Amino acid sequence: MISNNQQKNLSEIISLCKRRGFIFQSCEIYGGLSGFWDLGPLGSLMKNNLRKLWLKKFTRQTDNVFLIEGTIIMHKRVWEASGHIENFTDPLMECKKCNTRFRADHLMNGKFVGQGKAKEKGQCVNCGSKEFTEPRMFNLMFKTFVGPVENDASIAYLRPETAQSMFTNFQNVVNSMRAKLPFGIAQAGKCFRNEITTGDFIFRSREFEIAEIEFFVKPGEDEKWFDFWLEKWEKFFLEIGIKKENLRRYEHPKESLAHYSKRTVDLEYNFPFGWSELAGVANRTDYDLRRHNAFSGKDLMYFDEKENRKYFPYVIEPTMGLERVLMTLIIDAFEEIEGGRTKTTQPTKEKEYLLKLNKNIAPIKVAILPLVKNNEEIVKKSRDVFDMLKCDFYCQYDDAGSIGRRYRRQDEIGTPYCITIDFDTLKDDTVTVRDRDTMEQERIKIKELPDFFKEQFEDI
Ligand code: GAP
Fold this sequence. Notes:
This protein is α+β, with helices and mostly antiparallel strands. It is 31% helix and 27% strand. It contains 15 helices and 24 strands. The strands form seven sheets. The chain has a seven-stranded mixed beta sheet with strand order 3-10-11-17-14-13-12, with helices on both faces. Strands 21-20-22-23-24 form a five-stranded mixed beta sheet, sandwiched between helices. Helix 4 crosses helix 10. The chain is globular. Residues 161, 163, 193, 195, 204-205, 208, 210, 212, 277-280, 317, 319-321, 323-324 line the site of glycyl-adenosine-5'-phosphate.
């Protein structure tokens, strides 16, 4: 059975994202750069909310997790030690006829079937040929040179994950924060992967932001902590609005584990193109600290005062890509309503869209809508309400078109509340507050609005 989510039309979602300022193709006016995306005004606010919720939940409200901000460009030796130079590769095959390059597993699993000229598995999308070179391993890291001379000595890499600076700074955090096990280091920041094939909108990009935690524990306690983090991590995605039926766990078989992992569980989402990885939890063992200890010659062991001995802690890593989660939240919240939401608006022939985003994630919290724009008193009141609320909440002032049309515009970007200022406002200083999901309206005194909205949104 095709699930409801798999019937959602990704191209309609992509078009809404562009039309309403969530996501734009990077360098679009020059024809775009494959695998790179810009976040528009609403996408930026939404991603910021997601990052802030993650920070609140996992640094402010979780004991012993310390936030750091490492650099994007890191020393070549870091990636030799981490194993990325050797192992961070994907198999690449090239079409012998037109030289188009593919990730071998994607090509052979039929990922491109139905696109371009690919009618069956193992066929080139570009020319339909079935003849390819033998797979060769392609390293996904972006290389650059530090300083004015481009030679082997000046090679550095853009990080493909944020994890490594949390390992290289392990002793710095222990010493500066007097950190005791179990404790975590958290980081959110840009990462770069030169993916062989990108696609499915922003699902697989070449530049994206990861938010992850390296949680250091005593060896032997790692399996217990793995279960703890898996549960906590899964709960987070449900709390930010992903429907339970669209989320599942995928236990990686031993043979598909990353080179550093003893166990990895992906949290998979039911995308319109099928179940795929959304986020994950990995048990990285003591692999990274041991390797950096060996490669740098610096002591990265932990001194356990209680046991009076030194050892390498094990590491549990809950990770997510912020843009991938953002895309998922939009897909999950997206509803297309044939004939319109009739209760307060006239039935319409146009397609209507609703984004039932979690209120804390929604980019705009409140829209202020003067009933008419040619009445000075109503305009003044509306401006006053806007100026008062914008101190605490992202608001949008909209006076263009009928009220019904303006409600629809806000529904489409997921604004949880719309305020209408009308002629009654001039008499009794009350306004109408409309709830996005129920479309119920209630009248509230203007001076009570800040407290009313503070109750509706989490402080993040
Ligand atoms: N430090 C572990 C790590 O980087 P990963 O599974 O390779 O693990 C973490 O990446 C998360 O980053 C993934 O769960 C996914 O959400 C996101 N991600 C990975 N590759 C991506 C890409 N090419 N484009 C967008 N997001 C990506």
